[in-house]
Amino acid sequence: MIFDSHTHLNAEQFNEDIPETIERAQELGVTEMAVVGFDTPTIIKSLELSKKYKDIYSIIGWHPTEAGSYTAEIEKNLQERLTTPKVVALGEIGLDYYWMEDPKEVQDKVFRRQIAIAKEMKLPISIHMRDAIEDTYKVLKEEDVRDIGGIMHSYSGDEEWMKKFLDLGMHISFSGVVTFKKAVEIQASAKEVPLDRMLVETDAPYLAPVPYRGKRNEPGYTRYVVEKIAEMRNMNWEELAQQTNQNAHQLFKIEK
Predict the structure, then answer these.
(1) Which of 85, 187, 190, 220 could bond 25 through an S-S bridge, CB–CB 3.0 to 4.6 Å?
(2) Cβ(74)–Cβ(81) below 8 Å
(3) Mean pLDDT, to the nearest integer, of 25-45?
């Protein structure tokens, strides 16, 4: 019923218990997930998982903190892997000014290049945006991403920025951060985003929601994200789960 639109089941934190983690997710109503690969090892692992498990899909791309290592060879390999069955989006791509592993201009170039590839291949994009909201918006607007659309992954902005990204044709995805007491702006955005443009995620193993904050996050914990948003919007959680699942299927062009 619940679709975790962004998880890292391919991270080393899950090396020992992937089958058990998937089983726990199913028990909590999380029946589908998109596993995100952001460098060569995690891309390969994501593709392996989506091949092995019926309800796992792949999102692959080159993360902004890895921008300095992006080469013509990496781009060629990425383009080839994007044609793999069950790859549903290109990502996570974007800008990261928090870690600032590479200069802004390097991140910008790699970001725009991958948007161009996504447009060529008619794939939606999954956006990583950290301490870079203005520049991220600028790139998405200048590159005119409306035709492919995509996801503002683990959205962390306010309502005004949310409306700007919606105007560009993007979906807004909420992670466990929405359950944090001090995440007032994110909660306000979650109350106001149109239901047909909302997605939910974990970003596991990171950003575990209350009541597991500070522990390893798991795809199954998307359930707590759904319950929190449903509570804030005075909705039944199953109704929200069904709507966000439908949104993911439409964006990712998954037919079931």
Answers:
(1) 220
(2) no
(3) 98
